Structures are given as structure tokens and as C-alpha cells.
Amino acid sequence: MVAKDFVLLLHPAFAVIIVFPLIGMVVNMAWQTRQRRIQAAGKSKSKIPAIVGPDHLKFGRWLTTSVVVATLLGLGAAIGSKMVEKNAWGSEPGRVTFIILMFVLTLLSYGFLYRAKLKLWRGTFASLTGMGVIVLGSQPEVFRRGFEWYISHYYSGVLATLLMIFSMAVVQDIYQDRQQRWRRAHTFLNIVAALLFAFQGFSGSRDLFEIALYKTPPGFIFPGLF
């Protein structure tokens, strides 16, 4: 393995070590929070501790942060490695500068979203973060598998990321909405996100396998066969 291979492995390694364990924890806490709410509505005493709700919120925010970081790691590795290969700084210095600024501005926008309280600023910074992810993902260095978009690791990953950013933006509205509309929307969209994350495990493994096959001579895998 060379330095480029290690850089490309940062995204899947981060997802396996950080993102997927957090998904399991957040889903478990979401289920417990719902069960406790149902038991409280039925006037029955719940054995689920009250802290599960605040913990669900806290770990959910951590999960969203880790998903955004994982997405930027994947995009950064793809864009950066190919730009270095073709010496993009010498041929396209303006675009390289633009890409660097987009990464910085996307991270800053998410940082402001994480701390924003007012609805206006939450919507603004969520939109800027999502736009940054989309712009970076639209660069020619990123392989999007457009010929099979319905099983694309890129498209499902970006959609899941946007859903997580949206959840971060509306989390305060969930607690203020007495008609529970935001809570229902949050539940539905995060079920979709969980399914997308499950698919990410399959599509990411497939892409790593395809890359390995593409880079490895057949005779190395099956000595003497070719």
C-alpha cells in the first residue's frame, strides 16, 4: 500500500469505527425514547430511565457530525488524490483554491448550524452545509456511478447526509410542536436514513472490492490461471 491507498481508506475506516456504532446507539435510544413516551401516555410506570431522551438528542447530534465528517473525508480523498495525480494546481489553480474554500466553508457552516438556536440561522446554515456537500460532490474527480444511480454509493450517501443535516436543523422544532408533525417527519425521514446507511454498508464494500479487482492483476489473485 502507498500513501494514496491509506488516504482513500480514511473514509471507510471512519465509517466503520465511528459512524456505524453511533447509528446503532442512536436507533436503540430512539426506540427506548418512543417506548417510554408510549408508556407515559398510557399512565403506566416505565422502567426506561428518563435520561434516554436527552441522550438520544446528544448522540444524534454526534451522529450527524460524524456523518458530515465522513462524507467530507470521502469527497476530499477522491478529489485530492486525483488532483495531485494530474497536478491540478499547475493547470487549474483557481479551481483548486475554490475546492479548498468550499471544504472550509462547509465545515464552518456546519459548525454554526451545530450552535445555532434561531430558526432562521438553523435553516440558513443547514442550507449552506447541504449546498457545500452537493457542490463538492459534483466535481469531476468524484465517481458517482451515474450509469447505475439507483445503487450508487455516492447518491445514497449524499442523500443520507442531507437528511441528517435536516434533522439537525429541525430538532428544536420537534420539541416545540404540540401537534407532533415535526416528530413524525423526523421519525419517517430517519427511518429512510437508516435504510440508506444499511445500503451504504453493502455499496461501500462493493466499491472497495471493485477497486481492488481493478488495481490487482488477475494472475495475482489466481496464480497460474492467466
Describe the structure.
With 226 residues, the protein is an all-alpha fold. The chain has one domain. Helix content is 81%, strand content 0%. It has eight helices and no strands. The longest helix has 39 residues. It starts with a helix and ends in a 5-residue tail after the last helix.
**Number of DSSP E strands:** 0
**CA-based gyration radius:** 20 Å
Share of residues in helices: over 70%
Number of helices: 8
**Structural class designation:** mainly alpha
Q: How many domains?
A: 1
Oligomer: single chain
Q: Per DSSP, what share of the residues sits in E-state strands of 2 or more residues?
A: under 5%
| Rough outline | globular
- In N-to-C order, the SSE pattern is HHHHHHHH
Low-pLDDT stretches are: 218-226
Estimate the mean pLDDT confidence: 88
**Major sheet characteristics:** none
Cα end-to-end separation: 23 Å
In short:
By secondary structure, the protein is mainly α.
Describe the protein's topology.
Blueprint lengths: L2 H39 L10 H34 L2 H4 L1 H23 L3 H19 L15 H24 L4 H35 L2 H4 L5
Helix pairs in contact: 1-2, 2-4, 2-6, 4-5, 5-6, 6-7
List keywords for this structure.
226 residues; mainly alpha; 8 helices; 81% helix; disordered C terminus
